[in-house]
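The pair is quoted verbatim below.
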Amino acid sequence: MSKSAKPPISVHILDTSRGRPATGVPITLYKEENGTWHTVGNGQTNADGRCETFLTREQFSSGTFKIHYAVEDYFMKNSGFSFYPYIEVVFKIDNAGNDQNYHIPLLLNPFGYSTYRGS
């Protein structure tokens, strides 16, 4: 798959407490417009902890985005506790026309998380 054929925004969640992908986590992508968040896509992580079904390259435009990772049910099912009921990551894309892919991985455990821009 060529780089421009890939969906513009994707995520991957790795549960570092179990050393496995976090499967079945609901994810919602929002875009901010005039100070209000609007849903632009949603999905759920697959068996590999990945989700890229938010929007197509044609629907994609520059702006400020927020990914809402609904992790509480996942942790309640797998470890019985979740300090975080959800995690939100906000990021800004200045040039949506450059055919880049924006991959937002989440390294996750019941008491902490980290994220970064992946490739």
Q: What stands out?
A: Helices lie at 72-78. The longest strand covers residues 36-44. The radius of gyration is 14 Å. Residues 72-78 form the longest helix (7 residues).
